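Could you show me just one protein sequence together with its fold in token form as a worked example?
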Amino acid sequence: MTGEGKVSFLVIVVAGFVLANTLSMTWIPLLLWLGILWILGITLWVWKKQVMLDLTLDTENRECDNKSIQDRGVR
């Protein structure tokens, strides 16, 4: 874990303790579910961007291969 990752983790842990001590017990499960959904949303967003990037690169590579085949006169 990088230094920035450790600091972010500590901030989240401290914020969790502060919220747990200040909020009523009815809010804690709601916040946990919202946090889980938020993390899931970011994960899906990053995954979708990666898949789209992979598809774009694959298409570009295929176009380059087709062009090199045509340049050589091979069909």
